Amino acid sequence: MSGLSELPPLSLYIHFPWCVQKCPYCDFNSHAVKDGIPEREYVRALVLDVEQHLPAIWGRSVQSIFIGGGTPSLLSPEALDELMTALRARLNLKPAIEVTLEANPGTLETGKFSEFRAVGVNRLSIGVQSFNDDHLRRLGRIHQRRQAIRAAESAHDAGFTTFNLDLMFGLPTQTIEESLRDIRTAMDLEPTHISHYQLTIEPNTLFYKQPPTLPDDDRCWAMQEQCQRELAERGFHHYEISAYAKAKHECKHNLNYWQFGDYLGIGAGAHGKLSNAAEQTITRHWKHKHPQDYLQILENKSVTAGEKVLAQDDLIIEFMMNALRLTQGFESALFSRHTGLPIEIIHPQLERAMDQGWLDVTDSAIRPTQRGLLFLNDLLALFVEDE
């Protein structure tokens, strides 16, 4: 092992586990609101969670914050202000820190975006999924097309200069032309970032138990290819498998994930990854998933459900699973810098990938080819230890 000579950038992920209702395709840690949200208690728990990690991140600056869920836009601006104030008092936040809040159009009140911006949120990620009312109904979404359009308009009105729209394709009964109408509507609303990804059926979801009929692979590929073409024509750079951004509007937080940076995860079910140069370890941690179990932190009980020091094999596959999602790949030196391993350790796999036409490798960079992105699972399988 060449060793961790420096620590990677550090981000903060905050999980908010409540939704109005659970969508049938969702496998995230989210729970339908039944008897209200214990908002004040949850904010207190998040602050205690951060405090328990302070010794491990002392002196490090935080470059981005991402508040995901669930539906974080259910939070009141007052609760978010309390949380952001507590974070500023405890963490070394970079002056130009990116602070992203996920928002669902069906949970927004007039003026709420302005209040979120006033307390420190400077980037939104709006979960539109589709602008077709029939498709939204099939997906179990609680909003309609007009609310999705209004949410994007409200982001502009509130002064957000960067925001993302989340869109899915390959939806039940969806045609190629319908997917193109969705992407055109999204671009007409002038976001700076669009996430465009295929609906997949995940275990532990209603769709897994009662699977809908989805478009076949050929139609899904045609949707993706034609939408990508139109995104490129409108100035959206394809920088990650499902992410498209205007110039200088890539998501810094997600880039840190994909470049195998560190991130502290707080909140119910949150995951994190922290490097320790002194001990030469990289450790993953995760929190109890159910909100009631997580709130036990208020009774001085631990909310950490588990920790794992990553072994060499784990480091290799986890780094490649993230970095090879980037269309421009990564600098070769980044592998050693963020894993502590010499790049030579993966030379045999790199050579096999080049033989397959899946990677372009130079002395300074490693980049997946277009064919490599198409066969990403096969490419990643080369880096799984099977000997």
Structure description:
The structure is a single chain. The chain is 37% helix and 24% strand. By secondary structure, the chain is of the alpha/beta class. It has 2 domains: 10-256, Alpha-Beta Horseshoe (pyruvate-formate lyase- activating enzyme); 311-387, Arc Repressor Mutant, subunit A (Orthogonal Bundle). The strands form 4 sheets. The chain has a 9-stranded mixed sheet with strand order 9-10-8-7-6-5-4-1-11, sandwiched between helices. A 3-stranded antiparallel sheet has the order 12-13-14, with no helix packed on it. Helix 1 packs parallel to helix 2. It is globular and about 55 Å long. It starts with 9 loop residues before the first strand and ends in a 6-residue tail after the last helix. 38% of the residues are buried. The mean pLDDT is 94.
